[in-house]
Design the sequence.
């Protein structure tokens, strides 16, 4: 067992993240939030981070703790609106002009991240054409239809949540838990996965949802 | 008897009646989600959700709730037989690639050329919410809109041009409101159905966009469906 | 059981293919060739087809029968060289000037097909830069590196091979069998899958390798 | 004693010795495939194959052959512990995205600036074969080339400029031949190891590209490895 990506604590797993880091965080629709890693990141408290996360503040996610701790300089997301009438942690900072926002279509969000991990520096998409999203972006006509040019997105650190891991870093996911996890893992320099359980045996090949070649560290959630 | 507008669930019921066998459908937040409850039982339909569910089933009963089995709106759901899951890159490849037969979306405004505004009401103190709306609107094979015909203040939502930020251009193919069912055609809006007791002029009074009426324009009806006492 | 994509024979499954069709065929490294569908296509004998297939003639594939029957006008592939000294069916036609060839890098091949199915009309890639592949293609510098522009590729018909199918068209794959199958299924108007076994029950969600929403017809291989 | 060039398997052995723990490696057809047999046992290495195998194991024993468990060269293989499979789009996203630590490739020619020619010898009667070579050469973090130092006709393969069609520009980082191990640096080719009994001038005579010699240039040695009687 030469390759062993298991780490004891969430704190250890993110100990070397630096100020200014671009951090990708998985989770969507209530599933797949690496909340123990997010809390460890808050405790580690790197400054001026850029977060790449679907929802700026989601009620099942702890990203609001990073925001409230004043650690986030910029948010790249697809949803920055809270549900209730009360403004969210993000909305308060944003209205106060204390945080930069890049709110983009969800398919463009995930495709830009995939591109970042797949060696595609830029691609054309029809999504956002004729809307605010297209402002300032290059347009191009291809076969009688107009498209806008979007660029790859990648980061320094990806925090993702899965169901199980093995010591090779292979991950399995449950139901709709995977969402942005796999693409984010392809697009970050350091990839840390929080899982329900780290297994002693390798995950069978047909249960691997993301190969361990993309994962640097795995940590078992405490609960 | 004064004309009786459809309620939200009746609008969803009416849209559900146009779903045909084997369709792959995406349902937006709000009114569209209710469409699933009214798809005719003989129809075999797959509901896709942006978070990677292919084949969303009914809401999970309390004893079957699983926090990993959710739809894009964070509802705890079930999976229908034959359903499966993909990651977000596959989910949006499916959407952007034109594999969704119908996206059923809520809207603030629809223009007579099919332009859609449904993502940003410019509310004070609230951030923007795009989510999957732009992908769905721009790329689904058909886009059906479900909305009240006019705003709470009585202003029309079917316009010559949208005033709110656009979601996508020329995308809406059909609109279901509490008053009418309207196709968006190359020649503008064509009323297919209208509730009983409403005149063409009544509808035009509530609509900024020019309206044509189909020669076979029918009465828009729906069974009685009670609204739950839901917090909005 | 309203959705039922099962078809009795390979001949029925491809009966409506037309002359001039662009046909995508899965298979790579000996696995995933839909050979019964290929043979049915030869018997159906549409003319002037364009084949999109990794290997113009592979010893485990029957594409050579389409070539020998004179049904192929153009080949889009990544490998057009046979193993032995004897020229392959493809090489004979090609040397005689009877077939058009577009031989491209394999990653570009699969990414162009993915793009075709994913609504991406074109993308930039570093692969092929400075080689014959780049000739006549648009170049662009993005962040200090040069890239070439590649366009989406899609077709009229995809023939793919999987292990099992259910009546919804869901497919499962064995080991390295999937290769080009999933992306090809996203990029063709009509998708036909040949499988070892059609199951009576739906494939469990965590065994589905490709969702049936991409598959139009499934047929059980006769052997 | 005249200098004893390495045979094909000894070249593979020598390259295998530079593989370090946890590397993700892709092995090209021909000589590179043999590298797998000589990776030091204490190294834990994943071999990726373009057809979607992550963790290619040894060739399948006759009683375990499975026609669906193959590598990109159609060899019937096994899967190592912790291995898994992806489809071609993921496989090449992995390659093009720079996730392969080392691609070990055969070659016809390498230029002193690292240009590689390994896909088309312009043989009469034979079609082109690109496969995954261009993706691997252009995008792997390191590209190691394994080849005979000169052609069968005695012409050098390490050139000022490649004469055959290029695979990728400036990509080769290291070359292993039957005579030497050579790094390709920003200052040209740097000889790291050379077989016993060969002089610097002897090597230069067999090389068109200018050669620098590392101050600590060592003797290239390998254990005796017999070539099988293989049909080539």
Sequence:
């Amino acid at each position: 067992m030469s390759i062993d990506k298991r780490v004891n604590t969430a704190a250890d797993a993110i100990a070397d993240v630096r100020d200014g880091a671009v951090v990708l965080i998985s989770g969507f629709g209530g599933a797949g939030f690496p909340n123990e890693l997010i809390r460890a990141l808050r405790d580690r408290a790197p400054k001026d981070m850029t977060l790449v996360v679907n929802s700026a503040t989601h009620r099942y996610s702890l990203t609001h703790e990073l925001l409230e701790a004043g650690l986030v300089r910029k948010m790249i997301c697809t949803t920055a609106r809270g549900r209730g009438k009360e403004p969210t942690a993000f909305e308060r900072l944003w209205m106060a002009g204390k945080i930069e926002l890049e709110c983009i279509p969800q398919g463009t969000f995930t495709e830009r991240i995939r591109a970042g991990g797949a060696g595609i520096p830029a691609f054309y998409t029809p999504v956002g054409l004729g809307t605010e999203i297209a402002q300032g972006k290059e347009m191009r006509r291809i076969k009688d239809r107009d498209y806008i040019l979007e660029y790859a997105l990648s980061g320094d650190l990806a925090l993702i949540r899965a169901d199980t891991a093995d010591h090779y870093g292979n991950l399995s996911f449950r139901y709709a838990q995977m969402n942005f996890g796999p693409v984010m893992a392809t697009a970050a320099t350091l990839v840390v996965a929080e899982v329900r359980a780290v297994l002693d045996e390798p995950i069978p090949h047909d249960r691997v949802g993301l190969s361990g070649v993309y994962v640097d560290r795995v940590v078992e959630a405490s609960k | 008897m004064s004309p009786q507008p459809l309620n939200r669930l009746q609008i969803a019921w009416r849209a559900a009646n146009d779903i045909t066998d084997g369709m792959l459908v995406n349902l937006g937040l709000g009114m569209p989600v209710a469409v699933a409850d009214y798809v005719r039982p003989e129809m075999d339909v797959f509901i896709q959700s942006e978070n990677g569910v292919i084949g969303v089933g009914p809401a999970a009963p309390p004893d079957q709730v699983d926090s990993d089995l959710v739809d894009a709106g964070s509802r705890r759901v079930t999976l229908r037989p034959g359903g499966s899951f993909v990651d977000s890159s596959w989910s949006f490849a499916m959407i952007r690639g034109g594999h969704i037969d119908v996206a059923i979306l809520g809207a603030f405004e629809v223009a007579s050329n099919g332009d859609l505004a449904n993502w940003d009401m410019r509310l004070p103190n609230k951030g923007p919410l795009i989510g999957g709306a732009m992908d769905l609107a721009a790329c689904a094979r058909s886009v059906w809109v479900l909305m009240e015909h006019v705003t709470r203040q009585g202003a029309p939502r079917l316009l010559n041009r949208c005033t709110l930020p656009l979601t996508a251009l020329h995308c809406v193919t059909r609109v279901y409101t509490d008053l009418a069912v309207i196709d968006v055609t190359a020649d503008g809006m064509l009323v297919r159905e209208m509730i009983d007791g409403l005149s063409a002029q009544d509808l035009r009074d509530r609509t900024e966009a020019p309206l044509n009426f189909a020669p076979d324009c029918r009465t828009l009806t729906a069974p009685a469906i009670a609204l739950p006492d839901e917090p909005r």
About this structure: Residues 8-215 of chain D form a domain with the Glutaconate Coenzyme A-transferase fold (CATH 3.40.1080.10). Chain D has a mean pLDDT of 95. The first strand of chain D starts at residue 24 and ends at 27.
